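Deviations from the work plan: none for this task. Representative record:
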Amino acid sequence: MNCESVRESLDAEPAARAPAIAAHLATCPECARHAADLAAFDAKLRRALEIPVPARAPPAIDLAPVELPARRAGARRPRMLGWFALAASTLLAAILVVAITTIYPRQALATAVVGHMALEPDAWAVTDVKVPDAALAYVLNRSGVRLEPGVPQISYAHSCWFRGWFVPHLVVQTTAGPVTVMVLRHEHVAWDAPIDEGGYRGVIVPAGRGALAVLSRGGVDAAAIDAVAARVAAAVRWVD
Amino acid sequence: MSDATDTARRRARFEALCGHLRPDLYRFAFWLARDRAVAEDVVQDTLLRAWRSLDGLGEDAAARPWLLTIARREFARRFERKRFETVDVEELAAVEDPALGAADAEELAELREALFALEDDYREPLVLQVLMGYSTDEIARHMDLKPGAVLTRLFRARQKLRIALAGSGEAK
């Protein structure tokens, strides 16, 4: 194969390594460089295509509608049963409202946080290199957040678009492994909400007028996650 | 066995097979439609149709291509029903970009703009190859094309993207 045909093949299938292509690349530095450039381009392309996926919406369709038996013509319900049904319906509606307004938003937030994690695999690197102070300050300032001293070993700081706002996405290195913290100024939770989905474990905790989503994957235990959550919650300040 | 148990089992199988594929499905639909609202509708319609025809799915391993094929048909059906107006790509990129999250890197934003501008015939095989990890033969089956035609489209797609990116670089 000559250089032109190798490059045409690679442009269509950058990962293809048929024996003839592999043999050519082994002896042609220019084509090998072209192959490396293509691999880098495709990695960028993949990142561009990996758009954030909105949090799972509540099912708008009933997947298995149950057919109700037809009501007999002329049948009448006893009056007391009607009142009982009305009371039961009201109670059920109240329970549903409470469930929807408390459980669903938290679940949706947890799912969105987990969905976001999958977009930033780089954040999970184990490292002892701290993120530069200037980079951390930029990410925090952009979202109106300040951190008091007391959160050691932040190895990653990125300003991420999340549910309509730029939020700081930080990674704290612990002895058990990296723990991710999303500082969510515009999210509100009344109490701690555990996360356990998609291979991630963690917790969403209230923090002043906002919330923190703290999670990890793999071998980091709940105690380490809670410890990071407590330290960041104590250090975070919302700047007006 | 009761109907309720059957339905519960069917629902559990459906969730197990399709639940984790929702991100792929959404991204595929988004890059077909280049519109978030349409993508969400296509995902919804696809899942509904998949639920109805779940018994027709042979091996569980085939769930992903099966779903993407349904999504493609659902999008085509939607396109037949309503002819989309011609869109201004720059306007589209500007509208969509704030929702695209990781697009804070300038070069990613430029790349997305170039992807928005790419003709459907080139964008779809590229999405299938780069994002879904499809082989050339799998793309050929999915798009009902010959493998040679797929390779030509993939080659041209990358060529067009590079030209578009070089153009946007020169424009600065």
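Chain A has two domains: 3-49, 116-238.
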